[in-house]
Amino acid sequence: MMVCVPQVLSKAEVTEFRRVMGGAEWEDGRSTAGAQSAMVKRNEQLPPAGDTARQLGERVIRALTANPLFMSAAIPLRIFPPLFNRYGEGHHFGVHVDNAIRGDHLTGMRIRTDLSVTLFLSEPDEYDGGELVVEDYYGSHEVKLEAGDLVLYPATSLHMVHPVTRGVRIASFFWLQSMVREAHARSLIYDLDTSIQGLTRELGRDHAEVVRLSGIYHNLIRHWAEV
Ligand code: NI
Predict the structure, then answer these.
(1) Which of 73, 117, 123, 227 is the most exposed place for a label (fewest CB within 10 A)?
(2) What is the CATH number of the domain that holds 13?
(3) Do the beta carbons of residue 120 and residue 149 sit within 8 Å?
(4) Burial class of residue 180 in the structure, from the number of CB atoms within 10 Å of its CB (0-12 exposed, 13-18 middle, 19+ buried)
(5) Is pLDDT at 39 greater than 90 in this prediction?
(6) Average pLDDT rounded to a whole number, residues 43-70
(7) How far is the CA of 45 from the centre of ligand 1 (A)?
């Protein structure tokens, strides 16, 4: 299941992020790549342990945890400190799969990567190419969102970033461990929650069947969640 979450950051926040990142030092993106992905990765990153990445990353996490759609789709247990990358002309990231486990030296955090996230920080008309391509059972999907929007996709999928042929593509990317490990279970819970939100709008929060369905939602989380 891929889920796009619009307006995680406002345009004003994106402008502020871009201003801060514009004054930062960038390094070769292969510093955080695994052995296979280092062979196919050509981009730049903010140093993951640097102040700029850490401070902007904390702002991303605050925005995520205040976003009901993100929380409903991801059911996050632990969110890895967000990283930031930049693709100039000719940069790309060939087909790869993300490492199953990621550790953060600064915090000691270690997570199983259930979901991968890309938060776009450039507008689509600022660059050509640079689409994120995610493969799943139904084929491959190209994603290029407005600045401030993000896409969540299973970290188990093969994915790539097409070469940028004009301009610069800036994004934040990170992983999270979900309380609900199984993608299928997570998808069912998300669909149920979406239906409950729709019924709540139609019938009101106090309607007996809405209350009953909300109970089922929480009982499924109780059944599947690891906390
Ligand atoms: Ni990746």
Answers:
(1) 227
(2) 2.60.120.620
(3) yes
(4) buried
(5) no
(6) 96
(7) 13
pLDDT mean across residues, the chain: 96
Q: How many Å lie between the centroid of ligand 1 and the Cα of residue 196?
A: 33
Predicted confidence at residue 30, as pLDDT, reads 87
**In this structure, are 104 and 201 located in the same domain?**
no
Separation of CA 95 and ligand 1 centre (Å): 8
Contact between residue 45 and residue 84 where contact means Cβ atoms under 8 Å apart:
yes
**Is this prediction's pTM over 0.85?**
yes
Distance, CA 159 to ligand 1 centroid (Å)? 6
pLDDT of the residue at 163: 97
> Which range (93-97, 111-115, 213-217) has the least confidence?
93-97
User: How far is ligand 1, taken at its centre, from the CA of residue 93, in Å?
Assistant: 8
In this predicted structure, the answer to whether residue 34 has a pLDDT above a threshold of 90 is no
| Separation of CA 134 and ligand 1 centre (Å) | 10
Are 132 and 197 in a shared domain? no
Distance 57 CA to ligand 1 centre (A): 18
Residues 6+ apart with CB under 8 A from 102: 80, 110, 111, 113, 175
Residue 110 lies in domain: 3-178
Give the model's confidence band at 121: pLDDT under 50 very low, under 70 low, under 90 confident, else very high: very high
Q: Give 144 Cα–ligand 1 centroid separation in angstroms.
A: 15
- The three-state DSSP-derived secondary structure of 55-83 is HHHHHHHHHHHCCHHHHHHHCEEEECCCE
